[in-house]
């Protein structure tokens, strides 16, 4: 395993003022860890999904003025990118690390997942642990706790996915910064693997027509 574990410096990058300065700090610290995780989880996710998976570390290349508030590595079955496909992610904000599955607004598969999400909602709620978080906006770090969600909340997410251009959903867990920096590399990787195994049925639903 290449991943060496998170440190305070990895999260501190989001306190650096200025786009160029923050990117310099991010590249020197957090991006190193995301690249390590990207390589480490290729064989794990490829085995789980039964497909060759490829890592994509966020470059934030489109940014011209505003510095990034979070960063991540994503895995998809496409070598050229992940945004068009259901994918898995590990990343960090200044306050926490996150481990997620999701489909963002650029994916043409949103409608399929929306339909399957409602059709199999009962199974999803029984399979995905109640403390997992649902994010209808990947740019908002505050998700909805599944145990507190009503059926209407799930339906609203599905409706936005199916009908709105910017509809998206991310599902997963977050680990407070204080905990993440105390965890060994092996412990964090083990928790991420467990989370991905837990969310694998969601990934499969995104490709299902049943």
TrEMBL record:
It holds the Pfam family DUF1054. It comes from the Bacteria. InterPro entries: UPF0637, UPF0637_domain_sf. HAMAP family: UPF0637. Belongs to the UPF0637 family. This is UPF0637 protein CIG75_05235.
């Amino acid at each position: 395993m290449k991943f060496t574990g998170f440190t305070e410096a990895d999260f501190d990058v989001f306190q650096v003022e200025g786009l160029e300065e923050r990117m310099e700090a991010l590249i020197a610290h957090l991006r190193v860890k995301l690249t390590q995780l990207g390589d480490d989880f290729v064989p794990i996710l490829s085995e789980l999904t039964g497909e060759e998976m490829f890592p994509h570390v966020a470059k934030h290349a489109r940014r011209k003025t505003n510095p990034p508030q979070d960063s991540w590595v994503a895995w998809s079955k496409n070598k050229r990118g992940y945004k068009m496909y259901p994918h898995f992610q590990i990343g960090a904000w200044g306050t926490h690390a996150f481990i997620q599955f999701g489909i963002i607004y650029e994916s043409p598969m949103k409608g399929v997942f929306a339909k399957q999400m409602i059709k199999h909602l009962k199974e999803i709620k029984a399979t995905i642990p109640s403390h997992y978080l649902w994010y209808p906006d990947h740019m908002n770090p505050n998700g909805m706790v599944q145990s507190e969600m009503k059926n209407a909340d799930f339906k609203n997410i599905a409706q936005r996915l199916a009908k709105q251009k910017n509809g998206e959903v991310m599902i997963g867990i977050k680990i407070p910064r204080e905990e993440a920096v105390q965890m060994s590399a092996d412990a964090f990787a083990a928790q991420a693997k467990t989370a991905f195994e837990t969310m694998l049925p969601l990934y499969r639903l995104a490709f299902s027509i049943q």
